[in-house]
Amino acid sequence: MEWMTMLRDTNAFDLSATPIPFRTAHVGQQDSPVPVVSQSEARADARLIEQEITRLTWAVLDGGATLSDRQRLAELVNAQHSQRRRFDR
Q: Is the pLDDT score of 76 beyond 70?
């Protein structure tokens, strides 16, 4: 079970630093630093982000999502993927 918790351990996302889809970022913006937070805060933030992704995904699948819901879902998923790519390096 320890490996399952390791997969969920992530740092907090800085969504303001994520690149806008289909727009090239300047070199300085590509790897923006994430603010330092405690590990418990990071876990709580990661859980909240996952809950929001789940809620928005179901809204899209049910057909009740607005354009802003779809854009927010895209931002959150892009941020999550960028964070995971940082861990893979």
A: yes
Phi, psi of 17, rounded to the nearest 5 degrees: -95, 0
HEC readout, 40-81: HHHHHHHHHHHHHHHHHHHHHHHCCCCHHHHHHHHHHHHHHH
C-alpha distances (whole Å) from 38 to each of 9, 10, 17, 42, 43 are 12, 11, 19, 6, 9
- Measured CA to CA in angstroms, residue 80 lies from 52, 63, 72 at distances of 12, 23, 12
Q: How many other C-beta atoms are found inside a 10 Å radius of the C-beta of residue 18? A: 19
| The model's pTM | 0.50
* Token output for 26: 């300047």
Q: What is the per-residue pLDDT for 74?
A: 93
CA–CA dist 50, 13 (Å, integer): 11
What region, left, alpha or beta, does residue 36 occupy, with left being phi > 0 and alpha being psi -120 to 50 degrees?
A: beta
